[in-house]
Amino acid sequence: MFIIDGHNLLWAVQGMAEGPEEISDVGLCRVVGRYLKQIREGGELIFDGTGPRDKTGFDNIDGVEVLFAGLGTDADTVIEGKIAANTAPRSLTVVSSDNRLRKAARVRRAISVKSEEFWSELVRELGRKRVVDEPAGKRDGLSDAETDQWLDFFGMET
Q1: Burial level of 132, CB count in 10 A (0-12/13-18/19+)?
Q2: Which CATH architecture has domain 2-130?
Q3: Of 34, 46, 60, 126, which residue has the fewest beta carbons closer than 10 angstroms?
């Protein structure tokens, strides 16, 4: 399970970006969701504040749950609470370059990954070619006997 400091990761990604493109918070969530789905992990992306009024862009993002800390608190406090409350902290990966969160993760023996390192791994993993398991018949084609059987079925000469 990944717990990701949303704004911290967003700032790191924007700082690492080459070119004029700037990734949005929704775009970040979609990419992180794709990555987590590809590595078969679940996760939460937690942002400060209440988020935009119109949150429809965050709906139906596979692989990741998007949360906003709300008023009167911040994402760091929410993430610390999630780390403290987790019953299996060694299975957690906390993504943030914030020293406060990295320390909270270490205290509970969770894995702590800096945002820049996480993004580099994400880009590397999403750039890999995925091997798709295809049936052997698709690669090898029909045998001569199967071809003859289909030709007979359709009334064609063999």
Answers
A1: exposed
A2: 3-Layer(aba) Sandwich (3.40)
A3: 60
The mean pLDDT value of the chain amounts to 89
pLDDT tens for each residue of 78-98:
999 999 999 999 999 999 999
pLDDT digits (tens, 9 = 90+) for 108-129: 999 999 999 999 999 999 988 7
Q: Which residue has the tokens 């990604």?
A: 13
| The three-state (H, E, C) secondary structure of 32-79, written as one string | HHHHHHHCCCCEEEEECECCCCCCHHHCCCCCCEEEECECCCCHHHHH
Task: Give the domain ranges of the chain.
Answer: 2-130
pTM for the whole structure:
0.77
Cα of first residue to Cα of last residue in the chain, in angstroms, is: 58
